């Protein structure tokens, strides 16, 4: 018997991968490399929610090592994901009977979104006792826009588009907390990872939303902390940096004109 193993402690066996079997192994539970295993941060039991969460996972994003969807579905009892590029009838049994639903995506001029803080479930059409479904899209910004555009014809029949109300295209994007080690640069300020977006939404939608949000953000921060040890600092994108400088110049000129 292993003297270091405490009674009741669960040890997940590494799964060898090919062609790097001798160099890298994957945890059988969280499906992440053992060097950045997140099992210690995951809840002992998946967190129950009255809201059902469905994530449309872009095929390319599903292969990305920093995708937060697998961790999210491990953490929430009622969260599921499907891989694809658009939602349509027959893609998800959960949506086929048109339940009351909302889908998360920033507002645009052509497709406005309701701030989730102003959303009222009573405004949605309900079929029987169906609970609310929260839909999120996990992809790069470019792919996510394409996925939403391709899915809106179907979703508009029963779902409402909502946003977190914190997006700003004029401000350069960042990470979930201030750090020079940004794992994945977002296109503009307020854009967040899929897991963080769902956490912020559940804070508003669930009776114990504050606790759920804190749990999910804690897991996400631990994921970032572990991964940061293997990455080099990421410089801001030149285009976004230029936009930020132009904004600063405009604000400076406006301030000087007010003084005159």
Describe this protein's structure:
The structure is a single chain. Helix 4 packs antiparallel against helix 5 (about 210-230). Helix 1 (about 70-75) links the parallel strand 3 and strand 4 (about 80-85). A six-stranded parallel sheet has the order 4-3-7-5-8-6, sandwiched between helices. A two-stranded antiparallel ribbon has the order 1-2. Mean pLDDT is about 80; it is low at about 1-10, about 15-20 and about 170-180. The chain has six helices and eight strands; from the N terminus they run βββαβαβββαβααα. It has one domain. The chain is an alpha/beta fold.
Short description:
The protein is an alpha/beta fold and 260 residues long.
Question: Which features does this protein show?
Answer:
6-stranded parallel sheet, two-stranded antiparallel sheet, alpha/beta, disordered N terminus, 6 helices, single chain, 260 residues, 13% strand
Distance between the termini: 81 Å
Mean pLDDT: 78
Task: State the helical fraction.
Answer: 25-40%
**Spans of 5+ residues with little confidence (pLDDT < 50)?**
1-10, 17-22, 168-182
Profile the largest sheet: 6 strands, parallel
Question: What is the strand tally?
Answer: 8
Q: How many individual domains?
A: 1
**Share of β-strand residues:** 5-15%
The sequence of SSEs as H and E is EEEHEHEEEHEHHH
Gross morphology is globular
How many helical stretches? 6
Alpha-beta classification: alpha/beta
Using only C-alpha atoms, the radius of gyration works out to 21 Å
Main β-sheet, spatial strand arrangement = 4-3-7-5-8-6
EC number: 2.5.1.25
Pfam family, one: DTW
Region (Disordered): 1-24
Protein name: tRNA-uridine aminocarboxypropyltransferase
């Amino acid at each position: 018997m292993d003297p270091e193993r405490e009674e009741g402690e669960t040890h997940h066996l590494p799964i060898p991968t090919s062609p790097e079997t001798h160099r890298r192994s994957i945890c059988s539970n969280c499906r992440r490399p053992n060097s950045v295993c997140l099992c210690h941060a995951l809840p002992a039991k998946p967190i129950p929610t009255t809201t059902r969460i469905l994530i449309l996972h872009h095929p390319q994003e599903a292969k990305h090592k920093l995708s937060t969807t697998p961790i999210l579905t491990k953490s929430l009892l009622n969260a599921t994901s499907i891989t694809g590029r658009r939602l349509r009838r027959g893609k998800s049994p959960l949506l086929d009977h048109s339940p009351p639903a909302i889908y998360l995506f920033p507002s645009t001029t052509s497709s406005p979104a309701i701030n989730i803080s102003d959303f009222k479930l009573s405004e949605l059409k309900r079929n029987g006792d169906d609970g609310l479904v929260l839909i999120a899209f996990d992809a790069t910004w470019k792919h996510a826009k394409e996925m939403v555009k391709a899915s809106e014809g179907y979703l508009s029949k029963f779902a409402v588009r909502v946003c977190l109300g914190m997006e700003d295209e004029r401000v350069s994007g960042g990470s979930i907390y201030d750090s020079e080690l940004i794992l994945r640069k977002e296109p503009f300020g307020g854009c967040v990872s899929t897991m963080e977006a769902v956490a912020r939404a559940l804070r508003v939608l669930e009776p114990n939303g504050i606790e759920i949000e804190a749990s999910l953000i804690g897991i996400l921060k631990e994921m970032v902390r572990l991964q940061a040890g293997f990455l080099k600092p990421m410089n801001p994108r030149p285009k976004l940096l230029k936009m930020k400088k132009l904004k600063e110049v405009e604000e400076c000129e406006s301030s000087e004109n007010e003084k005159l």
